[in-house]
Amino acid sequence: MKQLAIMLALAGMLGAPALSAQLGGISGTVVDAKTNQPMAHATLYYYRSPYLENGPNHIATLKTNGRGFFSDVTLDPGRYIVMARFPGKVEGCAVDDVMGGEVTHMRIEIGHDAIMCTGPRVHSALVDPNATSDVYRI
Predict the structure, then answer these.
(1) pLDDT tens track for 58-107
(2) Domain ranges of the chain
(3) How is domain 24-126 classified at the architecture level of CATH?
């Protein structure tokens, strides 16, 4: 009986890292850029990079809770673009890499004068100089 308990414990330790290494996640908050207050019930759209609106890389749509928080821990590793929208506000976005077994935290601001995309994976070289509005090539 004691050997069975030890074998089950070892199997759990060996199986857990393999399972958690496959999926990762994104969590964070959506805030109003002008007031810095959380945005309850903002709509989020997740895309795999490269970004193609409504293309095959659109993988999820969800909403923030009453405190502006969101979380999705069922994502495959890779680069994600998260667009946040709220009626009457200019949308915001964030870009980051999801690693297996980790949860990436994002803070998305809605309501700047133009679309703002933040995160460690956004660089000024990604801004398309030929765009007619603030569009980020990612």
Answers:
(1) 778 899 999 999 999 988 888 888 999 999 998 998 888 889 999 989 99
(2) 24-126
(3) Sandwich (2.60)
